[in-house]
Design a protein that fits this description.
Blueprint lengths: L3 E4 L2 E3 L5 E7 L8 E7 L6 E7 L7 E3 L7 E6 L4 E6 L8 E7 L3 E2 L3 E5 L2
Parallel strand pairs: 2-11
Antiparallel strand pairs: 1-3, 3-8, 4-5, 4-9, 5-6, 7-8, 9-10, 9-11
C-alpha cells in the first residue's frame, strides 16, 4: 500500500514560483506513472503533469496551460515527486493533488496565487 502526502503549497504573488512535493510511504520506483492534478471549487479535477518510471523512460507530459512553466520530476531514492511551478498566475490557484498509478491519491495542498 502506498500513501502520498503533498506539501509546499501556500500563498504566492503572481509571477513567483513554488515547488510542491509528494512524499510516498511506499517505493515509488515501482509505480509506473505518477502525476499532479489540480481542482478548483465547482470544477472537475484537472490533470496537470505526469511522469513515467525510469524503466519506462522517465518521460514527462504537461497540460497546455502549464507547459513551459511547470516541471515534474521524481526522485526515486527519496520516494518523492516534485512539481516546480514558475511564472504562476491567478488561474493556477487550486488544490493540487498527487496521483500514483494504481489509484493512489494524496490529500491535496492548496496553492493560491494572488497579489
Amino acid at each position: 500500500q502506498v500513501q502520498l502526502v503533498e506539501s509546499g503549497g501556500g500563498l504566492v504573488q503572481p509571477g513567483r514560483s513554488l515547488r510542491l512535493s509528494c512524499a510516498a510511504s511506499g517505493i515509488i520506483a515501482r509505480i509506473n506513472y505518477m502525476a499532479w492534478y489540480r481542482q478548483v471549487p465547482g470544477k472537475e479535477r484537472e490533470w496537470v503533469a505526469g511522469i513515467t518510471s525510469v524503466t519506462r523512460g522517465g518521460s514527462t507530459n504537461y497540460a497546455d496551460s502549464v507547459k513551459g512553466r511547470f516541471t515534474i520530476s521524481r526522485d526515486n531514492a527519496r520516494n518523492t515527486v516534485y512539481l516546480q511551478m514558475n511564472s504562476l498566475n491567478p488561474e493556477d490557484t487550486a488544490v493540487y493533488y498527487c496521483f500514483g498509478h494504481g489509484g493512489y491519491w494524496g490529500q491535496g495542498t492548496q496553492v493560491t496565487v494572488s497579489s
